[in-house]
Known about the structure:
Number of helices: 2
Number of domains: 1
Strand content: under 5%
Distance between the termini: 39 Å
Radius of gyration: 11 Å
Mean pLDDT: 97
Structural class: mainly alpha
Amino acid sequence: MLPQFDSHRHGSLCDRGRADSYYRRFPRPHWWPDGTGNGEKITTLTEEERQEYMRGYQSNEDLMDFKEWD
């Protein structure tokens, strides 16, 4: 499995989609090969990669699991 498609991997497409939804950020498909915030942020994606990011984003939207800002 390619690392960007490993949904349990920190920084993967699905992970970043879920996180962006959780923090109520606008979806901007990307991933981090070396883990979130480490190395290069990848924003040039294939259609399949964009769909994987959006699967993560939508899965969190469906759960309605959002950060509560006190």
